[in-house]
Amino acid sequence: MATGVGRRGSKWLAAARTPLGACSIVLLTLVVALAVLAPILWQDRAFAVDTDAIGQGPSGTHLLGTDSLGRDILFRVLVATRLSVTLAVLATVIGVTVGLVLGALPSVLPRAAGRLVISVVTIAVAFPGLLLALFFAVIFGVGTHGAVLAIAFAMAPSFARLAQTLAASVVGRDFVSAAKVAGVGRIRLLVRHVLPNIGEPLVVNATIGAGAALLAFAGLSFLGIGVQAPDFDWGRLLNEGLDGIYLNPAAALAPGVAVVLAGLAFNLVGEAVAGVVGVRTRSARIGRRSVPAAGTAAAEEHGDDALLVVENLQVAFPRPSGWTVPVRGVSFTVRAGEAVGVVGESGSGKSLTGLAVSRLVETPGVVTADRLEFAGTPLLTTPERELRGLLGTSLAMVFQDPMTSFNPTRRIGRQLAEVSEQHQGLPRRKAFERAVGRLRSVRIPAAERRARQYPHEFSGGMRQRAMIGMGLMGEPRLIIADEPTTALDVTVQRQLLRLLARTRTEGDTAILLISHDIAVVSQTCDRMLVMYAGRVVEDLLTGDLAAGPRHPYTRALLAATLELDTDRAEPLTVIPGRPPEPDRVPAGCAFAARCPAATDQCLVEDPVLESVTAAHRVACWHPQEDAAPERAREAVTAGGAE
Amino acid sequence: MSELMFDAVSVRYGGRRGLTAVDQVSLTVPAGQVVGLVGESGSGKSTLARAAVGLAPVSAGRVLLGGADVRGLPRRRPLQLVFQDPYSSLDPRMSIGESITEAMPRGAHRGSAGRRAEVARLLELVNLDPDRAATLPGHLSGGQRQRVALARALAGRPDVLIADEITSALDVSVQGAVLNLVRSLQRRLNLSMLFISHNLAVVRYLSDQIAVMYLGRIVEVGPAEQVLTDPQHRYTRELLAAAPSAHSSLFDGDLGDLADTEPADPHHPPSGCRYHPRCPIGPLVHVDRTVCVSEDPAEGAARRRHRAACHFTASDLAPTAIPRGGSAS
Amino acid sequence: MTAAVASAGIRDNPWLSFAGRRLGRFVVSLWVLASTAFLMIQLVPGDPVRAALGMTAPVELVNARRQALGLDDPLWVQYGHYLRGLFTGDFGTSMSSGLPVAQVIGDRLPGTLKLAVLAFAVVVVVAVPVGVVFAVLTRGGRRRGVELGFTSTTVLLAAVPEFLVAVGLVALFAVALGWFPVAGRGDASAFVLPVAALAIGPAAVLSRVVRVEMLSVLGNDFIRTARAKRLPARLVYVRHALPNALTATLTLGGLMLTGMVAGTVLVENVFAWPGLGSTIVQSILQKDYPLVQGIVLVYGVGVLLVNLVIDVLLALLDPRSTIRES
Ligand code: SF4
Ligand code: SF4
């Protein structure tokens, strides 16, 4: 739960405001009201025996007909609300309590006893509730008390398990470890850290459990094991009604409907709250309002060898408050065989730019551009089907997290071979052979054997190699690598970057390397694009980095990057403040709030990316001139406020 | 101020098929000094930190704090740990003030007013607005959360602070501010500190001494500048060479065929020197160096420069200093 | 010596060691189940024989029956008898009919099995494709209307317990329309209503689960990889998403199959279906404890078996599972 947690009650209120929540609350109120009022109002009529009207169908006097003693079905159903609901709630309360005790026992008992409790719970959880209830009904005997206890005990194991799992997941988190290190005792740990963080899901589940208990109780009574005559709950009424179903179907259906409605009331309240409390995100329900128009960017000169041309690229996502635009008008060109780096901090839009140019942004994201061409083919207007062959063989992707980027249930070799089967029409065996060859070419030792292994048998570095190998199954003209080495160790990182560099020279393949690390990019690429708040703010040759970038942000970023020869005597350079949120980008230059060179013009007018020299573009009203980047240092004690 | 000492500490997980995450590590953090600990993921550096504060089981050896075994110390120890991930290390349901208060030693501050004053003091110490004590962590950025985590650690009045990858979840522009803060705090409060990171540049900036860990063992330890300019263990050299830098080429110091070997499996550590399957000066390159496979270089390491766990340390061979990384400290 | 070698072999082969562990757990669970069923009778308050024969039964008869059932022996002797009985297939004698429990169960079990297996087959055949299709239709927040319709329909269907579905079906198709028989076990048409009653709720639940699982798998990085390979959508869904969604689906499917076993108890009672379910309810009401005990054992073994099969299937499907276990 990384997002902010507001006042505790507010979420429950929010739950009530959704249509589902409102509906469920109305239903629940109705059920509770009936439970309280019905026996007071209609007790007599529910018991009034009318020997003249035995087993009648619905009529004006008896809306739902009468039972075998001539008693009015409708009133009996209404009056039965109290007993049905009370018993269900009672069973739930007992069941949840027993469950929590069972769940907490292992942490209190000595080890062996604790494990015994856990294994008993594990076995019991495997059994469906009704079977457990029947089992306990045998022990506790037929009748109301027996049924309450039976249902309660049948609920207990699953609750114990739930509490255990929830608690285990909380205990595994760092803040509990942190509290332990701070010397917080076990009891306080439980009360202050564990319980509050599992309380809500427990309450939600208890509510849903009450619904289940209601249904289970109806089931037991229906079987004749629960409530005994002359008492009656809905299950009992159902049982009686079923016997006369040919005479009066309503007598069987009415209690059934009542059970379902009441069960739904509990279920829906639980679900509604879970929807708000839990992580289930509801995406915005806004109409297809037009996407905000991007500003114009100066058109760039493209040589004949332009492989990827991007002009005024914009990516937008709908949010309840309107559109948020994480990529705001990005333009650049990648020439054949060129290595271009994209540098920026988290939230700068660099990864999204990579996804957008490879057409991997999915709805509800909207990608627009004045021009987006790969190898001369427009990517936004050509239908997906026609693009598939081109992109499948000529554009390769390498993603950030090698641990999750392969399908865990398929062998590595097959995942590579798939590309050739699909796009080059190779038969299975040929494709697999090619996959082995590609794995060998990215220097995976024992490629033949490893091709038959699953991803989890590969180390992170090897997977990333395999990912590059997958890109090489076709004849890629461009490899887009999105933070390919961020998750890896430095020695492995260097191996991979070298592999990328080698791949590039061998196949005359262009590379778009997206990274947060300016050093990595400058080591690998000819040119770099520096991104800030969804814009390219500077486009320069990496060779010019030492001579001095022109944009204040690039300079600050460079100065803030720690190197092995950073002066230890001096405090580190920091960039004060933080980048704007993508949905709250200010008018004017997005960097203005943090920029030492900002002027009034910067606050109102957004600078456009313009060429300063042939191979150098900057989006800044006051590009820095001096060769050596000025190091804006702060006092140590200030440390850089955010 | 007291020193933190690991005395042949081992941490083992699991039973028969278990894994020794930390193997016989001895390391001293002298009073008032910063010891940097580097190593790749899986080298056991975080486990060592967790062992010190009792979050990982010490299966052999002792952790001594000011000469006393930490297991014998009271629950609230003058030894605190700051975690890597600022998003999970603060309870989302507790205001940052509550989190900090919780870590204060019992009875150190009279009444709620005293505690509130202390919270304000600590927040100011980490450059946060004291008025924000009632904020929930959800409303803070990563950098701010990490400051809160620091404040909470300081609330325990520690003599020794362990920082476990505290900047690796942060952006470059925020990282600098946190490092500046850590350094000024360390100096002002004269803390002894074990600073753990995979990033050599970060470790170098803060540390008086540097220890290098590989597969559960310390392979080299010494004064920071010496370790960086005159590394004895081949693995240290590799780490130095691999550190990305805006002004060095990717192909400096080519490794040849060994460049593409995989990291060893911690479940089955290699015999002898654990680095031997990757070592460019080891048995895979020099066939006569069978001693690397058969004998553990940890024995006799104490006699070598930087206590290097290597049979063929750099000073045994022709001394070649690494040209860069040699600025004054 | 050989034992050591064998155990080393088991240790080296993850499959063997997994099978060994899982089988061990099954045996232990069986034993716990048997012991619990034994304890159940001991825990019944009062004298079960007196309870079964009624208050009016003469003391001699009660005592004779107690003797015959061995209820006067010390507990551990009874327990020994009981376990030995289980091994030889002797589940005791029904108090109400005087028939061996094993025979009663043998008569009734096939009816229940047919019902449960058929219903489960219907659930799987219906729910998996429906879940996949709706996941694909509504992925990434598309087609909110379809999503709303799907969710509310399935929530509603899942909220109605099977015996109420059964009653509703009877009222509609048997009473009002007269298409199917109300009760009993005649030709194939007699299966339609009970199977439908059993299958509708679980099918709704399972299709919801399949959809949610598919959606979460579709959000995974490796799906993006598959799309980056420009595979046709069909392959992305069927080859890459579905197998990963199935593991969770299978886990739940197992739970549901056991739940259906329980559901048969109620549904059999609605349709007067001659199976174990109607028998156990009668025997509970008649306090025929040996019979109850026997049927509880059968249900229990069924549940444990289903769990065992599911675990093995999961291990087969997911290449990582054996490693995760250790
Ligand atoms: S436009 Fe102004 S605020 Fe923006 S970077 Fe340039 S000088 Fe700074
Ligand atoms: S002991 Fe041998 S293998 Fe190990 S680091 Fe030294 S030379 Fe390399």
UniProtKB/TrEMBL annotation, chain B:
<dbReference type="GO" id="GO:0055085">
    <property type="term" value="P:transmembrane transport"/>
</dbReference>
<dbReference type="InterPro" id="IPR003593">
    <property type="entry name" value="AAA+_ATPase"/>
</dbReference>
<keyword id="KW-0067">ATP-binding</keyword>
<dbReference type="GO" id="GO:0005524">
    <property type="term" value="F:ATP binding"/>
</dbReference>
<protein>
    <submittedName>
        <fullName>ABC transporter ATP-binding protein</fullName>
    </submittedName>
</protein>
<dbReference type="Pfam" id="PF08352">
    <property type="entry name" value="oligo_HPY"/>
</dbReference>
<feature type="domain" description="ABC transporter">
    <location>
        <begin position="4"/>
        <end position="240"/>
    </location>
</feature>
<dbReference type="InterPro" id="IPR013563">
    <property type="entry name" value="Oligopep_ABC_C"/>
</dbReference>
<comment type="similarity">
    <text>Belongs to the ABC transporter superfamily.</text>
</comment>
<dbReference type="GO" id="GO:0015833">
    <property type="term" value="P:peptide transport"/>
</dbReference>
<dbReference type="Pfam" id="PF00005">
    <property type="entry name" value="ABC_tran"/>
</dbReference>
<dbReference type="GO" id="GO:0016887">
    <property type="term" value="F:ATP hydrolysis activity"/>
</dbReference>
<dbReference type="InterPro" id="IPR003439">
    <property type="entry name" value="ABC_transporter-like_ATP-bd"/>
</dbReference>
<dbReference type="InterPro" id="IPR017871">
    <property type="entry name" value="ABC_transporter-like_CS"/>
</dbReference>
<keyword id="KW-0813">Transport</keyword>
<dbReference type="InterPro" id="IPR050319">
    <property type="entry name" value="ABC_transp_ATP-bind"/>
</dbReference>
<keyword id="KW-0547">Nucleotide-binding</keyword>
<dbReference type="InterPro" id="IPR027417">
    <property type="entry name" value="P-loop_NTPase"/>
</dbReference>
TrEMBL record, chain C:
<feature type="transmembrane region" description="Helical">
    <location>
        <begin position="149"/>
        <end position="182"/>
    </location>
</feature>
<feature type="transmembrane region" description="Helical">
    <location>
        <begin position="188"/>
        <end position="206"/>
    </location>
</feature>
<dbReference type="InterPro" id="IPR035906">
    <property type="entry name" value="MetI-like_sf"/>
</dbReference>
<feature type="transmembrane region" description="Helical">
    <location>
        <begin position="26"/>
        <end position="45"/>
    </location>
</feature>
<feature type="transmembrane region" description="Helical">
    <location>
        <begin position="291"/>
        <end position="317"/>
    </location>
</feature>
<keyword id="KW-1133">Transmembrane helix</keyword>
<keyword id="KW-0813">Transport</keyword>
<dbReference type="InterPro" id="IPR045621">
    <property type="entry name" value="BPD_transp_1_N"/>
</dbReference>
<protein>
    <submittedName>
        <fullName>ABC transporter permease</fullName>
    </submittedName>
</protein>
<keyword id="KW-1003">Cell membrane</keyword>
<feature type="transmembrane region" description="Helical">
    <location>
        <begin position="245"/>
        <end position="271"/>
    </location>
</feature>
<dbReference type="InterPro" id="IPR000515">
    <property type="entry name" value="MetI-like"/>
</dbReference>
<feature type="domain" description="ABC transmembrane type-1">
    <location>
        <begin position="109"/>
        <end position="314"/>
    </location>
</feature>
<dbReference type="Pfam" id="PF19300">
    <property type="entry name" value="BPD_transp_1_N"/>
</dbReference>
<keyword id="KW-0472">Membrane</keyword>
<dbReference type="GO" id="GO:0071916">
    <property type="term" value="F:dipeptide transmembrane transporter activity"/>
</dbReference>
<comment type="similarity">
    <text>Belongs to the binding-protein-dependent transport system permease family.</text>
</comment>
<dbReference type="GO" id="GO:0005886">
    <property type="term" value="C:plasma membrane"/>
</dbReference>
<keyword id="KW-0812">Transmembrane</keyword>
<feature type="transmembrane region" description="Helical">
    <location>
        <begin position="115"/>
        <end position="137"/>
    </location>
</feature>
<dbReference type="Pfam" id="PF00528">
    <property type="entry name" value="BPD_transp_1"/>
</dbReference>
